[in-house]
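User: Quick sanity check before I run a bigger batch. Here is a single chain. Can you write out its predicted 3D structure?
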Amino acid sequence: MFELKNPNDIFENEIGWQGDEDLVISAIMQKKKFDSFPEKDRDSLKDFEIRNFKGKNPDSPKEEIDLVLIRYSR
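Assistant: Done. Predicted structure follows.
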């Protein structure tokens, strides 16, 4: 059995919480999944911050995988 950790703690550095934001919406997914979306859907996210980074593979924590953060704040 393993301990599940809160995604807010795991991805704290990538999400970049700031105290002056009224609203934060964020999604993290594998880059290969993000890239599988039609280009027009990806282009529709122009008002969102989109950042690539590496993170631990949930199926094999010793491996890293490519991830995408999609973040909106105001």
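The CA atoms of residues 37 and 43 lie 10 Å apart.

User: Great, the batch can go ahead then.
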